[in-house]
Amino acid sequence: MTTLELNNVTKIFGGVRAVDRISLGFEQGKVTALIGPNGAGKTTVFNLINGFIRPDEGAITFKGKNLVGLKPWEIAQLGIGRLFQDVRLFQRLKVVDNVMAAFNRYNREGVLFSLIMPWKVAVQERKLRERALALLEFVGLAGDAEKLADNLSYGQQKLLAIVRLLANDSNVLLLDEPTAGVNPLMLKSILEVIRKLGREGKTVVVIEHNLNVIIEVADWVYFMSNGQITSFGLPQDVLGDPEVRRTYIGI
User: Fold this and answer.
1) How many CA atoms lie within 13 A of 83 on its CB side?
2) Any idea what DSSP says for residue 148?
3) pLDDT tens-digit map of 166-217
4) Which residues pair with 25 in a beta bridge?
5) Residue 202 contacts residue 168 (beta carbons within 8 Å)
């Protein structure tokens, strides 16, 4: 089932069509890769989905709801989360506390409530901590729960950032170069988590330059060039397209 769609979307910056009448669909339970050379428009697509910029033309819908005009935080609350290339963690907080801080929709009691009913707050905190530890277990970080986020490796920090998206009930995960700068051992862990997210029914969209990663995890691939989608299909079909190979790989 297609949950997130862009239909005839265009975005122009200073006369340049960064995104030029593109139509995309992302399916629940699938990992879809968005690939192409630098400047192709991939990050602009993510920024359009997140509401950081508005399209000049076209529609963006999530489960039939129009996203155009919504603020980024409103789109996030609908369940669309994003992993940025800079992981954006609370570096001086413990790993488990980073996750608990992302449970914002579950933790809305004010100071007065905490003073009047401290036992209820304690019960809630315990439940959230248990849930945070379960999410950390999902990505293999439960053993690092008490470490400071700053003491994790870069690859582990990326996994923690994904956990924070899950803590905020994100059903669509936009992952911007999740394996860039990661050592080979951690790369395998991140790929396994991405595959698990798809199996868990999440809609996963990955911007990625590592073609081996695309072959490993992607169910579908869109190839972008000069703001347009020029190829779509299975990874082996898109990467075997002569025009894609000439434009992207240089052969």
Assistant:
1) 28
2) B
3) 999 999 999 999 999 999 889 999 999 999 999 999 999 999 989 899 999 9
4) 5
5) no
Would you state the structure tokens that stand for residue 19, as one six-digit string? Answer: 């995104």
Does residue 124 have a pLDDT over 90?
no
Question: For residues 178 and 218, is the Cβ–Cβ distance under 8 A?
Answer: no
What is the token pair recorded at 10?
Answer: 């265009």
Rounded Cα distance between 135 and 165, Å, is 10
Let me know: does 213 contact 200? Beta carbons within 8 Å. no
Residue with tokens 């409530």: 113
Mean pLDDT over each residue of the chain, to the nearest integer: 91
- Cβ contact 101:90 at 8 Å: yes
The pLDDT of residue 85: 85
pLDDT digits (tens, 9 = 90+) for 7-57: 999 999 999 999 999 999 999 999 999 999 999 999 999 999 999 999 999
- Region of 249 please: left (phi>0), alpha (psi -120 to 50) or beta: alpha
Q: Cα 53 to the chain's mean position, in Å?
A: 17
- In Å, how far are 9, 32, 42 from 216, measured between CA atoms? 29, 12, 20
Q: Which of 38, 46, 40 is nearest to 18 (CA)?
A: 40
Question: What does the pLDDT read at residue 176?
Answer: 95
Q: Which residue ranges form the domains of the chain, and what is each CATH number? A: 2-79+171-249 (3.40.50.300)
Strand partners, 218: none
